[in-house]
Design brief:
232 residues, alpha+beta, Pseudouridine synthase, ten-stranded mixed sheet, two-stranded antiparallel ribbon, elongated
Length: 232
């Protein structure tokens, strides 16, 4: 007998688990043969937290529609250092020379740097990403030390707002379109400031109208919660 469950579950994914791993954990709450179809709309990196839209039953048919919805993030980046992955999952590499005046450039960041990254921009994806190169995910080649030239892609940044700046940490909110890499955005912002940078934290706060306020916690999720929190 097929499962009657159908809809969208707004999950708050915790750090340390991939989107696929989160989906597997949810699937295991249901036994075959009544396990419904599952999918998700928009991958979150394992280090990132926040909104993961889990699609159940007929909700899986809305995958492409939801993937195209604007996404909102709260990000924290560190200036004056970087990592190979542009996130905290790899060893930090300190920048040799950091302009001491950076700590006094809040006004420039808000009025010059951020506006230059708003709208339609070209962005080079990070080396450690799932885009295919020669039929293999780029991150597999990067792990083997194989260099590659990823083509710049046109993405849309709807808004970019500074939340706080306590050098070397810069916290910002971003609303962006499909295909945007916040890791690359942080790296490019740092480059515009004459230094390097990488993300130390990233939380997705919304996908379209689905927000973190209406989410359920992945770590404590039960099958009963899924049934009572499914949304159209």
């Amino acid at each position: 007998m097929p499962s009657p469950l159908s809809g969208i579950l707004v999950v708050n994914k915790h750090s340390g688990i991939s989107s696929a791993g989160a989906l597997t954990r949810i699937k295991l709450l249901f036994r075959k043969p009544i396990r419904p179809k599952f999918g998700h709309a928009g991958t979150l990196d394992p280090f990132a937290t926040g909104v993961l839209l889990v699609l159940i039953g007929k909700g899986t048919k809305r995958c492409m529609e939801l993937m195209g919805q604007p996404k909102k993030y709260r990000a924290v980046m560190k200036l004056g250092a970087t990592t190979p992955t542009l996130d905290p999952t790899a060893e930090e590499i300190a920048h040799e020379e950091v302009d001491p005046s950076l700590k006094d450039q809040r006004s420039r960041i808000e009025n010059e740097i951020f506006p230059s990254f708003t709208g339609d921009i070209y962005q080079v994806p990070p080396a450690f990403c799932a885009l295919k190169q020669s039929g293999r995910p780029a991150y597999e080649l990067a792990r083997r030390g194989i260099s590659m030239d990823l083509e710049p892609r046109l993405v849309t940044i709807y808004s970019l707002e500074l939340v706080s700046f306590d050098f070397p940490y810069l916290e910002f909110d971003v609303c962006c379109g499909k295909g945007t890499y916040i890791r690359s955005l942080a790296c490019d912002i740092a480059a515009a400031l004459g230094t390097t940078g990488y993300l130390t934290r990233l939380a997705r706060t919304a996908v379209g109208d689905y927000t973190i306020d209406g989410s359920v916690e992945l770590e404590t999720l039960t099958s009963e919660q899924i049934s009572s929190n499914l949304r159209p």
